[in-house]
Automatic annotation (TrEMBL):
Keyword Ligase: yes
The protein, known as: Amino acid--[acyl-carrier-protein] ligase
Enzyme Commission code(s) on record: 6.2.1.n2
Family annotation (Gene3D superfamilies): Bira Bifunctional Protein, Domain 2 (3.30.930.10)
Organism: Sphingomonas glacialis
Domain of life: Bacteria
GO terms for MF: ligase activity
Keywords on record: Ligase
InterPro entries: aa-tRNA-synth_II/BPL/LPL (IPR045864)
Amino acid sequence: MDMQTSFRTRLIAEGILFPTGVDGLFGRNGTFEAVYDGLEHAITNFGRGSGAEVMRFPPAMAQTTFEKSGYMKNFPHFAGTVHCFCGDDRAHHALMGQMERGEDWMGKQEPADIVLTPAACYAVYPIVAKRGVLADAGHLVDVASYCFRHEPSLEPTRMQLFRMREYVRIGTPAQVLAFREEWMERGQAFATSLELPFEVDVANDPFFGRAGKLMADSQRMQNLKFELLIPVNDGAGPTACLSFNYHMSYFGDTWDMRTPDGNAAQTACVAFGMERLVLALLRHHGFDLDQWPAGVRETLALR
């Protein structure tokens, strides 16, 4: 059995993941979703009392918002757009003929003005910006969304459609850096409560192209991104299951979010890769939830 895919093979054999014929696109069974629901409960508990505004979004966003975010400048290889049929009866007849003949029928599809969401926090910034100048205390958002990245893989931890939960802090440099430091501690306590092995290390995003290496090196040198890594896949390095990100004033400048002193707001976030955390728990505690450690079951409120 191939070391890279053996965990995936076991997940499919147990009926926990349902293959769809596309690498990185899976259905999930009740066991998987029970653990997912438990993680949602646990993350909410770890963030309780913070006064975060709750926002939940569908897996798509306006194309204009996506374009303004600058995502295509740095990650065009991950982006996914939505197209649809907008023709008349004749065009429909021609399309059906193409499909019956096994021809490419996608050429006549037209943009639907929406793009698949690449990261949960992207939908937050234009909403907060429209409200005007931030309060002295800044703002905190608890956001979640399905996200898409065109990254086909046999690794079960590298899904093309996955769920992301984030806490996003918007404010002054002191406020957002204090938030990130606090959540780097909370994130480790969270992993410990799940009895998972982990390490935290500086990281970088997978920027595109020749300039991407320079951007990645700069990101690491400035310690803008840290990841909490957990061993999950057979024969591979540990998987990033949480990330702690400092964006400086990038989104504040992009969306004209301002602090009371008139400066561009800065932002930071802690992001939970929900499917990856489910898979990490299944990998380390097994597929029978009744046999999981009592402390983990309590943290996840598993019944």
